Prior knowledge:
It contains ten helices and 14 strands. By secondary structure, the protein is an alpha/beta fold.
Amino acid sequence: MKTAILGASGLVGRTMLKLLADRQWLSAPPRLLVSGRSAGAKLPFRGEQLVCAEVGPDSFAGLDIVLFSAGGAPSRHWGPIAAAAGAQVVDNSSAWRMDADTPLVVPEINGQMLRSAGPTTPGGIIANPNCSTIQIAMAVAPIDRAFGVREVQVTTLQAVSGGGQAALAELKAQNAGSEPTADSLFPRPMAHNAVPAIGAREADGSYEEEGKVGRELRKILGRGADLEVSCTATRVPVYNGHSAAVRVVCEKPVVQGLACGVLAQWPGVEIARDPHEYATAREMSGRNAVHVGRIRVLPENPHALLMWVVSDNLLKGAAWNAVQIADVLAGQN
Ligand SMILES: NC(=O)c1ccc[n+]([C@@H]2O[C@H](COP(=O)([O-])OP(=O)(O)OC[C@H]3O[C@@H](n4cnc5c(N)ncnc54)[C@H](OP(=O)(O)O)[C@@H]3O)[C@@H](O)[C@H]2O)c1
């Protein structure tokens, strides 16, 4: 199968390129598409140097799968063009996630819908969820199947790589002593700080990232407003790897041993031998799995379960989830 990456020079694009190197279904090196800013840049792939090209109307001819990681506006523009050219788009941006014709997929949770629908979707686009949503969904889905989740409360501690390569460069500069400038990507100084505001502020006082978690979690789990989700999303001065403190309230009382069992058996989830143990962002950075630790039933409320959920936002939160979707489309998963 033939593929391309739109946004190949970015953090997610480079990560997807590395993951594609060992896909057996790839029949040719991926086409690397970027804006005019980095056209001509070279990226390594299977021992070769591939040259990035500026995306244009003819970029998608003859392709089977196109992985998008160029941001919302390019996705909205190029998504329908790539789909009309016959490619199946897998999009990392938020542009299409809540579109009714666009499946929002975490393969371990609802990948079956792609297997049963065949290799194309109605609009030709499949959306990858938000990075925090994916890891939260991976921890909540097995608990939902076993105990029926009716409420999710979460506080995220999100790495700066989640904001792309410019955000990462800015934190590195601040760590080296630079003062934030007026055009900073962060609303407050990021070094040695924690900032409870990711994305634009909404009319109700929440921030954009927090609404995404609720809406997307419901769509992935196939739930409606009956699932109450509250989220406080914070940016912390971690280079890579998101953490989340998650509390779920279930219909049935939660049995700790059974909760650990369903989590341990869920594909893509890891738990420690001692459920009170935990992983950190540094330990999970570079790994595909989602780690669930600090697993405990609240003594005052046997329906409430607490978890500490950690994952690499560039891998399971973006590139790995997208490549897993591509594997399903290629009939390899
Ligand atoms: N970072 C994460 O952890 C994460 C997780 C989940 C989802 N996402 C989503 O994935 C997307 C990419 O994120 P990122 O972190 O990789 O960002 P990034 O490091 O800033 O990279 C952005 C990429 O998009 C390209 N691009 C920007 N505008 C373009 C345009 N108009 N036409 C063509 N290409 C364009 C850039 O190419 P140039 O070099 O030519 O500018 C670059 O390759 C975003 O939508 C983001 O929300 C990111």
